[in-house]
């Protein structure tokens, strides 16, 4: 496979880089300190149409592929920013585009593409069901032409910053199911209509991520906002997972490149014992090692993205890319912190911020243990380990 970027893809990278230069390190640093949302940055990206990259042109988007979507998110992180603030609008497209009805797409996508509506909240995780999604307990009970939602979600990011939420809830009791992957359904919940019946409690986390515990007290969703068929929601969410893993791999690679650039520059410039610290193998080799691992991860990422865009099966590549990229970025983060000595801990250097941010990718949106379980079971044919 040839992973040379096309002139259009190179241009996307350059254009995103230009936007990011308007939002330099001190912009992200100040937000991190106050745990504020990068409202101006997200607005700018939306105005320029970048967050509608995966929305087809007929619905007002730019109709680009996952390769281009991943380049956009990578470049944001490579520039020192944090794409997690806006990545959900791309993560959710897999489910909505593939399984949403024509009426749902016509109703919502043009408004999302134009920035009138934000779909940045994706609600799956619950206190008693993190990795094991089939055990979720939040219920959606059909009453007339509505579903009524009761239950609790946790770690649901950007609820206050969204108008719409993609929500997974249980429409059949777990005990009654022969196939435990059935009985879950996906809804497009309009948060503006539901706000009196939803309680949202912000979580205090290690990173600036706007995550919340969410409590549903009889929240009503119109029947027409059920995505696809009732009971098939877990399948629909899984369909979106390959895209999500490719996009998160790209974000991690963006972080990794940022760390390597900073580390190599500092190692060339910082003089200790009369010579640049980068001339010591103890500093140089970990940076070079992380760079090599990052390059390998990047190749698998492009392989996964290319296959995805060709509509070929890509579960093995998407999962491998997510695993390798998140680990390589973490390795780069450590090499960068070590190279900077005490200054790595100084907030003004931004390394400690990116260090915290990049650690997330080994855990969320899916933990690397579950990625390994996928590879062991589905790629290598070993028994299910859970
Ligand atoms: C900052 C942040 C933002 C998030 N945003 C969202 C969001 O917007 N929407 C959303 O739905 N969720 C979100 N999440 C939740 C995230 O997807 C979950 O945290 C993640 O899926 C893991 O679930 P858990 O935390 O319940 O861990 P658990 O499932 O409790 O697992 C704990 C640990 O045990 C390991 N483990 C469990 N079972 C096995 C096994 N069989 N074999 C090997 N290891 C195992 C896991 O890999 C993990 O390391 C977010 C999380 C964070 C931290």
Question: In words, what does this structure look like?
Answer:
- With 386 residues, this protein is α+β, with helices and mostly antiparallel strands.
- Helix content is 48%, strand content 15%.
- It has helices at 7-21, 25-34, 39-47, 66-78, 88-91, 93-99, 102-114, 191-194, 233-269, 281-309, 315-339, 351-359, 368-379; strands at residues 119-123, 139-143, 146-157, 164-170, 184-190, 198-202, 211-222, 226-227, 271-272, 275-276.
- A 4-stranded mixed beta sheet has the order 1-4-5-8.
- A hairpin with a 2-residue loop joins strand 2 (139-143) and strand 3 (146-157).
- Helix 9 packs antiparallel against helix 10, helix 9 runs parallel beside helix 11 and helix 10 packs antiparallel against helix 11 (315-339).
- The longest helix is centred in the middle third of the chain and has 37 residues, at 233-269.
Give the helix/strand layout.
Elements: H1 7-21, H2 25-34, H3 39-47, H4 66-78, H5 88-91, H6 93-99, H7 102-114, E1 119-123, E2 139-143, E3 146-157, E4 164-170, E5 184-190, H8 191-194, E6 198-202, E7 211-222, E8 226-227, H9 233-269, E9 271-272, E10 275-276, H10 281-309, H11 315-339, H12 351-359, H13 368-379
Parallel strand pairs: 1-4
Antiparallel strand pairs: 2-3, 3-7, 4-5, 5-8, 6-7, 9-10
Helix pairs in contact: 1-4, 4-9, 6-9, 9-10, 9-11, 10-11, 11-12, 11-13
The protein binds flavin-adenine dinucleotide (FAD).
